[in-house]
């Protein structure tokens, strides 16, 4: 019998558009069953990479988000330790992990890069499920039209989107599960 899929809604906060020259500042995953049962969460704030710098445009945006900035700069830990803890946590989950992001192209890029650099493996293999692409398929729309403002209101729970990684991972995971129910 196939193992149950566990959907890890994952959100990343970073100081630039790509890992390496820029750092992942914070990330979180909310582990959901398909029925929208939240079975666990993981979050970490990371020390910046030694030779990385914040991108000027991203840092300008961060200046408009003082609460989120403060949240992601508290209790920072070494990326090596955080990523190893993350993989250990994923291994405790009762099923096959599926990375879910909005947009997956951004969040997965950072998480995968950090996993490969600091752990040497990815429990997600090379793949991620993108909520926006899934919305496009469900809405039978063009990709650019599959934005949150065009999505049916019934897909959204009353959860905050704060740019604090754990808040956003939980919010986006609930959105994904509501969409999954309609498929």
Automatic annotation (TrEMBL):
Gene3D superfamilies tied to this protein: Ribonuclease H-like superfamily/Ribonuclease H
Protein name as annotated: Exonuclease
């Amino acid at each position: 019998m196939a193992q149950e899929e566990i959907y890890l809604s994952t959100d990343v906060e970073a100081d630039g558009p790509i890992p390496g020259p820029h750092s992942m500042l914070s990330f979180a995953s909310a582990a959901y069953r398909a029925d929208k049962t939240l079975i666990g969460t993981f979050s970490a704030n990371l020390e910046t990479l030694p030779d990385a710098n914040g991108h000027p445009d991203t840092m300008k945006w961060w200046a408009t988000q003082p609460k989120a900035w403060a949240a992601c700069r508290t209790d920072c830990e070494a990326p090596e330790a955080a990523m190893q803890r993350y993989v250990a946590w994923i291994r405790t989950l009762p099923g096959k992990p599926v990375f879910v992001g909005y947009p997956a192209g951004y969040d997965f890029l950072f998480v995968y890069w950090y996993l490969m650099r600091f752990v040497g493996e990815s429990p997600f293999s090379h793949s991620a499920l993108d909520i926006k692409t899934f919305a496009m398929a469900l809405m039978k729309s063009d990709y650019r039209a599959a934005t949150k403002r065009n999505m049916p209101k019934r897909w959204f729970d009353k959860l905050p989107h704060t740019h604090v990684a754990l808040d956003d991972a939980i919010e986006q995971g609930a959105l994904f599960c509501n969409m999954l129910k309609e498929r």
